[in-house]
UniProtKB/TrEMBL annotation:
Listed Gene3D superfamilies: 3.40.50.2300, lambda repressor-like DNA-binding domains (1.10.260.40)
UniProt keyword terms in alphabetical order: DNA-binding, Transcription, Transcription regulation
Keyword DNA-binding among record annotations: yes
Keyword Transcription regulation: yes
Domain HTH lacI-type, residue spans: 4-61
Species whose genome carries this gene: Gelidibacter sediminis
Protein name (database record): LacI family transcriptional regulator
Amino acid sequence: MKKVSLSDISKELGVSKTLVSFVMNGRAKEKRINDEVAKKVLAKAKELGYKADYLARAMRTGKSQTIGLVMADISNPFFSKLARSIENEIAKFGYNVIFGSSDEDHIKSGKLIEVFKDKKVDGLIICPTVGDKNHIKKLNKEKYPYVLVDRYFKEIPSNNVMVDNYGGSFEIVDNQIKSGRKKIAFINFNVELINMMDRFHGYLEALKVNGYELDNTLVKNVSFKDIEKETYEAMEELLNVNPKIDSIYFANNRLAFLGIKYLIENNINDLKKLQLSSFDGFDFMPLMQMHISYGIQPIEQLGISAVDSIMKQINNKEESSKHAMLPMDLSLIN
């Protein structure tokens, strides 16, 4: 069977081979090619079964047209949606994505980074773990294009894209207090991730500005490794030791899911007095019989911003150490 060429695509669409080449090499925006035209070229290439000779192109241009994506946990809807946003956006530049999950393990994260570099990816998009500082410092030393997403390290210069974790957390807890809640418990991860620390500090600030003092018995931290067991233990302790609790705030959707699961499995009857809130949620939450409010993270925009940053670096147009912070959608579900 004859191999499909760029000329075949150009003839089918009635456009120049040069235009097709620009699109397939991810230079459509650079050459100001209309988005609709670029989409038609990519669609026709897929229809005809065009397969680029990536090795030859990499040797010719010095670029592999691939990005390595390191996610913390691809099974979590937040990260899977983020990966999809990145995949969709990077395709507009004629790029492909290869990805892996670190499972919050810095050793696994480091191995993934090295594997991707061995595959000659043009850049990396990384959701770093707590122990990734040395990996990031090494990338800086090598001047390897990368962008950190969802998390970063304050002491290490980097291009990064974040959500306003502090502001979002403050607003969610402030909303709880203004609705009459006085004993707001908080379940968080016992880690040094900056996004989780910012959410805790937002919780503290909301208490402070509303005249409440921190009650350490209302704050529970769990680990990634034993998340279900420790979340259950935290819920049991909070509800048994602190019967006056009228609200529980979860630092992320996974903790919220486990907290709800605990309440259902243990037939907690007095749910009408207990308000639940989470920094972000799952699609099923509006269907719950219990009351829960949550913020909505701008996942699609996170992916778009991360791609914009990495592509600017690859094309030598990105300034170093650029920090982008995106606001939360705080139209809470009440």
